[in-house]
Amino acid sequence: MRAVKIVERVLATIPIMIGVAILVFLFMRFTPGDPVDLMMGKDGNVSAQEVATLRAQFNLDEPIYVQLFDYLHKASQGDLGLSFKKNRPVIELVKEALPATVELSLVAVVISLFIAIPIGVYSAVKQNSLIDRASMGISFLGVSMPAFWLGIVLILIFSVKLGISPAQGRIDYGVGLDKVTGFYLLDSILTGNFQAFKSTLSHLLLPAITLGATLAAIVTRVVRSSMLEVLRQDYIVMARAKGMSEFKVVVKHALRNALIPTVTVVGLEIGVLLGGNMIVETVFGWPGLGRIAVEAIFNRDYPLVQGVVMFYAIVFVMANLIVDILYTYINPKISI
Amino acid sequence: METHLRSLRLFGQNLQAFFSQLKKHPSAWLGGIVILLYVAMAIIAPLLAPHSPIGTDLQLRLIPPFWQDGGTWSHFFGTDVLGMDLLSRIIYGARISLLIGFLAVGISVLIGVVLGMLAGYFRGFFDEIISRFAELLMAFPFLIFAIGIMAVLGPGFGNLLLALTFKGWVEFFRLVRGEMMVEKTKEYVEAATALGVSHLRIIISEILPNVVHSILVLGTLRLGYMIIMEASLSFLGLGIQPPTPAWGSMISAGRDYMMTAWWISTIPGIALLILVLSINLFGEGLRDVSDPRLKRG
Fold it and tell me: Between chains, do B258 and A276 touch, taking CB under 8 Å as contact?
């Protein structure tokens, strides 16, 4: 039964993906200015013949619905077109930038969960204590703080004033690293390059904290409130009455159930995390997807913008799908 | 006429009860007062600002805030790289943040509530179309969607508003549609229908007063979010363009001078943080009052 539900849920994402692709295509087609003019630049000395050839090459001389079908057909095969500025396939540029973004996002999620879950649990167990109140206050601040400003303040404190953390890039200049997977942390471990590992980690910390701060704040609050609810349940009272140690009651019995809403929240926040990537990568000069998207916007490199926006949307849809499926495993009572 | 008066009275009573319960939330009150102060600051900005928000003077560039060496009282928070007075720009910047925030939420509420009421009440083909479109928009992370639109349309006030509302209405639509579907099955609606009251009157006079709380809560919480979105887009250079004072672009402008002039980025960020924090405090208070089950802890 569960398998059927999962297949249904997976199939339901297909029309959404197609819709996303159509919407992105239509938006970009309504862009002011002709794509060929944009490709040539305003002062390009090109003959009418050359323009016509280019239009034919990019199918721009076809009716819009033919262009749309052509675009969808190619996109389904992973072909997102050519970047105007870099003259390379968009998918190649996305693939190049992807590991940097994934590495940053994963570290951000890990840091935020490692901070948020213990604090949330502790706050619930010691409700209304000083630590509880302080952590709730800080998490409220975290929810209200714009990521780009937090990034700047962290750079100001840790890079400019204290000089203990680099402010830009993924690794120090001059530190060699053989690229295996594109994930620098992993690559430096795989190649046994301790210097590169240290350099990568120091570059990762500030952007990851910036990106993960909002998530940490939200998760702390959710864990706390769902722990408070669970701790009042009869079976917890029962476990305590049976003389089970408090640690076991909290971690083994309460936390497992309290984590269910947390998974939902992390899922819902993936969109915020993806959007936050663009901002954080810009602040920290992080060579990931977000930064190439922002650069592409200023270069008016529409195929690249289109490709990255679509890629983000697809990742978002997939992430929500995974969260929904994961949910059925954590709590089998819930059907998707 | 009488029905209209009655529904207006119902609206009034609901809101009155709502705000009197809010009195029990000191943090929400604090938030509300700070929001009002910001609104007042934005309205009387020309009276408060000591200097022109766009007046440049290169001889006065990079003056630190008054409490630092080299700072002066006449430039309370110092000046930026073009010699523009930071305090004046922050005061005027509240206008952009609040205007964009309120307009973006207001338009989103209007579109979302109207479509949500119609879709939730009448269901059918109209509901199907709008719901599918809303679902499609939900597939995009908000900021990325807004960035995509700004990339196509270019920067500017109107475009910014369009980028924020194009997807902003969806949450209100889903909320109102859901509540509409629940309310429609209740006895008072059935009774009104049996009495031959028109659909429009049932929606506006009977059901709407009952969902106004939820709209108010969501609207307040979205206000802070929209203000951060505007600042983020302006920070990336896609929103309000300098020299028009907007906090996001001011923070961005200070990035190149962090080594020497920390205040250019930091202080506008604090102004933004305090405003969003206050809005969220107020919004959480409203939420606790409107649905005590959601009260955290």
Answer: no
